[in-house]
Each structure stands twice: as structure tokens, then as C-alpha cells.
Amino acid sequence: MTGNTREGAKTLLIEAMGQLGGMGTAGMVPAWCPFSDGEKIIYKGLAEKIFRESMKGVSHEPENKLDWVSINPEYLMSIYDRMVTESGAKVLFFSRLAAVEMSSDDTIDAIIVSNKAGLVAFKGKAYIDATGDGDLAAWSGASFKRGYDEEGSVQMSSLCFSFANIDSYDYINGPTLYVWKDESTPLYKAVRSGKYPLVDTHFCNNLVGPDVIQCNAGHMTVDTTDPWAISEAMILGRQKAVQYLEAMKDVRPSTFSNAFVVKTASLLGVRDSRRIEGDYIFTVEDWRQRKSFEDEIGRNCYYIDVHSGKHKPEHYKKGESHGIPYRCLTPKGIKNLLTAGRCISTDEQAFGSTRVMPCCLVTGEAAGMAAAHAIKQTRNDVHKIDTSYLRKRLKEEGQLIL
Question: How far is residue 214's CA from residue 61's CA, in Å, rounded to a whole number?
Fold first, then answer.
């Protein structure tokens, strides 16, 4: 039930939801984080291909726009379906990791997946953990860190949602909704009124289609490894969506008087969970030094964005970026496992930069390619692959590597 991908490896993609794309689709994040360093695209290779294709679903966005470009989640779903199936990989939806079987202390033998067929075992030569929370790595015995302080406090999560039947002209030409410290903005007035206790100062929003805005709004502190906490957060998030609309109808009726909540996300917007300890831990000092690495597999330029209220944002200047070391993708002590996406190896502050979708796409492509190389080169040992060859292949596929 597996297919051969471009590196010649048989690949099965197991997905807990009913669509690919995670936060950009099921999570309804309204816009891509910046794809450029202010001068040029930084996230290239597959990331750029996906980004360019997704722009066809938001025809109101300028063709040359590279930063904070709106996302049409339904259109993005179709892109992922097409690209993954054309690659030769097989997809298994509505299937969730339930357990891990080890053949030794350092080697994964099989994973146990729960779906409509019951509990099913799948065996592979190499595995990639793209669960976000690092479930596969943690359950395999890999060490990890969590949170931004000694108590393990995590960044706040959000449940995204969309409003339909807004007045697009008024939305575009009226005062911005978001700038919290400006007393003229609707958000400031709504929070200050005291009438809307579920509305806070977080209210990112983008026009994603005619008379439809999508919102990344409302903060919740959630331990996303606790299923009870996630369940409560989903209920609270939907309540927040309703109250944000009530508040906007009150303070900005010219835009929202006829609007309604058209959809809330089916996947919680998680910013912070496990960070799996790799052969290298990328630090905030590496980020500040704009550091490059001999084994880097791509670049990143997103700012230090820690949703905690305790860390000030830090930004690069135009044209600046840092390298992402391959060693951040290789969990210590596990032979045939790679990580990709939010759970790669960083410290708590650098994580505020690497956790976002463009960077996750870059690490995902590198992990997929590295897994295939490990099978061919090193008897499935991801720590011993030829990183020079990996970098060469990534460059051939269009990735930006210095």
C-alpha cells in the first residue's frame, strides 16, 4: 500500500485528519507567514511551489506579494492532494498514531495506528515524526523539552475561524481591526468596553474571498498533550469565535452587521508543545548571529514570535536569514527516526521563529529526502547520511542553501 516517491522510496503518509496541510487547511490559519526576507523568497523548493500554487486560490492578492498572503484552505487542500498523489506516495486519512514498537533501544520496528480497521501495525525502514507535538519521537524514548520557562509554561494556542457576509469594501477601506494600542481601532474599543470577556488583544485576520475573512484570534493556555485540555479548548475556542463576532457587530457595524460565523477550525492552533532533542539544538543566539551551518538544509528568516507575554519580539533586517541544521531533525538516541515541522530541536526562544508553516515545509522536504538517503546509504541510520549529498539534492530541487 505504499508508493515510490522522487527519491525512489516507498512512502506512506499517515494523517490524523481528513485532509493534508495541518494548520493551513484543517487549522484555518488565515495567512502564510512571510515567505521573504524583505528582498527575496527564503523558503524555496517544495515550500515555494506550494506557496505559488496556493496563491491561485486567492486571486485578489497581488501576484508579487510574498508576505502575509491570504490562504484559501479548501483550495490548499486540493493542492496537497494533487502534489502528494502525483509524487507517488500513498495517503491514509483518519488514522492516528496509537503506539510504537521498538526492536531495540534505538530502533523503531513498527508503529501502531488506530483507525476504522482497528489497531493496525505498519513497518518501515525509516520514520518521520511530523505530528507537531513530537508524539512518535517521545513515545520512542527520545528526550524533549517543553515550554519557555522552568515550569514548562507553553505559548498560548488559538482556534481559528471565519466570518462570511462582511462588507469587503468597508473592511478594506475602514480602520484596521488589529492594532491593539490604537484607541481608534475596533479591537481596542471591544476589549476596553468590558462587555466581551472572551475577546482579547489577539485578532489577526485576512480577506480570503469575497465578503469572507478568516481570523487567527483569541488566546488560550493549553497543554496540547492532554486530550481533556484540548477538548475544553475546542469548546472555548468556538465560544470565542461567536463573541468576537458579537463584539465586531457592536463596534464596527458598517463591516459586520450582516456577518455570521461560517466555520471554526477542526484542528486547534497549537504554537507550543514538545521540542525533541536532536544532535544539535538550535538556539536563540544562533538566530541572533544569523548563523550558517555546514549541514544546513534550508534557511529561515521569521522573527522571534513567542506568544507568552514574557518575551519581546526580535526581528531581522531586510536580507537577513539563518541556516537550519540537518542535525536539528535527528533525535538523539533513535537510529531510524527524523523530525519535521514544529517539533524539531531548538531552544525555547528560537522555537518562536522556527515553528511557523514556511519553515515547517522546508524541514519536511529535507526530512523526507534524508529518510530515503538513510535507507540507501547507512542501513537506515539517519545520523550517518552524507549531508553533502543531501544538500546537493535539495539544491537541485530548488532549495535555498548557502
Answer: 14
Q: What confidence tens digit (pLDDT) does each residue in 23-36 have? A: 999 999 999 999 99
Mean pLDDT value across residues 362-383 = 97
Q: Pseudo-torsion of CA 229, 234, 236, 240, nearest 10°? A: 150
C-alpha pair distances (Å), 68 with each of 29, 208, 326, 328: 11, 12, 27, 26
Classify burial at 292, counting beta carbons within 10 Å of its beta carbon; exposed 0-12, middle 13-18, buried 19 or more: middle
* pLDDT given at position 2: 53
What type of residue is 162?
A: S
Which pTM was predicted? 0.95
Report yes or no: 324 and 362 within 8 Å, Cβ to Cβ: yes
Q: Using CA atoms of 88, 91, 97, 101 in order, give the dihedral in degrees to the nearest 10.
A: -40
Are 70 and 207 in contact by the 8 Å Cβ rule? The answer is yes
- Pairing outcome for strands 127-129 and 337-339: parallel
CA 230 vs. chain centroid, Å, equals 17
Reported as a single tens digit per residue, the pLDDT across 382-401 is 999 999 999 999 999 999 99
Radius of gyration of the chain (CA): 21
